[in-house]
Amino acid sequence: MQASYGHREAGCVFCALEDSGRVLLDNEGHSLVIPRRHGADGLELHQAEWNAVVEVLKLRREQLSAQDASISGWAGLLNARGGLNSGEAAGQTVFHPHWLLIPRREGDSEEPRGGVRGVIPGHQAC
Prior knowledge:
alpha+beta; HIT family, subunit A; transferase; HIT-like; HIT family protein; EC 2.1.1.-
């Protein structure tokens, strides 16, 4: 298992971030958490990697909450599409595990049902 942690996939946009110094990216509090080891999706992660992802998500939530008292909720996605999309037939477009953590604020959407899809134009669930 330990040896697999160094796996990177040529041509993978997320694997290419390895030497960029950016493990956590954010824009207006929107954060993207990407495990370093390449895999097709989150189901390929080892338990220790899942645990590390959860710890980073919790830490980021704490950081953002401390910086911005207007945050009143959180939305997030597995694999940036909602739920868990594993495979092209399921709608997966980036074949590397990743999670979005998006702060939500009271009134930032007329209808917050549907989670993060409500804050990304054109993605509101029908």
